[in-house]
Amino acid sequence: MNGPVVGVDDGVPRCPWAGAAPGTMRDYHDHEWGRPVEGESAHLERLTLEAFQSGLSWATILAKRPAFREVFAGFDAERVAAYDAADVERLMGDARIVRNRRKIEAALVNAAATVELREDGGLEALVRSHAPAVPPAPATTEEQQTTSPESLALSKDLKRRGFVFVGPTTMFALMEAIGIFDPHLVGCHRRAASATLTRCSSD
């Protein structure tokens, strides 16, 4: 049974994937994961990066995130939706990002779908409308889910609106990352803080 791991340097309990020693993943765990984000571009960024992460480690995506933000124009939906075949080839030649043609093309498709979704409340409102009524409260990694009825519903809703690379597992990871519910293990020092932030963001 894998519960929270205590940091070797500070004695603070954290979700095991954050590691016991200081580093990029622990910083992400402590300061970003499970905390709400605001605005269309922030939601499009997280959705896009979760899609690029599929089959890779999140550490890889974090290391490349500054480059992703640069080449995708700060995830401005209108600007990315206007990218053409030449832009796809430009991105395929940029070694600073994940050079996967299907994922790059998906980012353009999803940017266009995000622009269209503005007429129906917007991406942020749609994602947050799928928050679970009863948030999970896992005490160990064995109890953690990788999908949920809500992530399946969000996946179907987004696909119906033209989004791609938004499977239920990817959407569950998105929901965890942006604090749709508190994803931290019971006993992790961030759990109570994330729950407070999530409640405040929905008040």
Can you describe what's shown?
This is DNA-3-methyladenine glycosylase I. Its EC number is 3.2.2.20. Residues 133-152 are annotated as: Disordered. GO terms for molecular function: DNA-3-methyladenine glycosylase activity. The structure is a single chain. Residues 195-203 have low confidence and may be disordered. The chain is an all-alpha fold. The longest helix has 17 residues, at 101-117. The protein is 52% helix and 2% strand. A two-stranded antiparallel sheet has the order 1-2. Helix 2 (40-53) packs across helix 3 (58-71).
CATH superfamily grouping: Hypothetical protein, domain 2
Number of separate structural domains: 1
Return the structural class.
mainly alpha
Beta-strand residue percentage: under 5%
Shape: globular
Number of E-state strands: 2
Give the spatial strand order of the biggest sheet. Answer: 1-2
Number of helices: 10
Rg calc: 17 Å
User: According to CATH, what is the class?
Assistant: Mainly Alpha
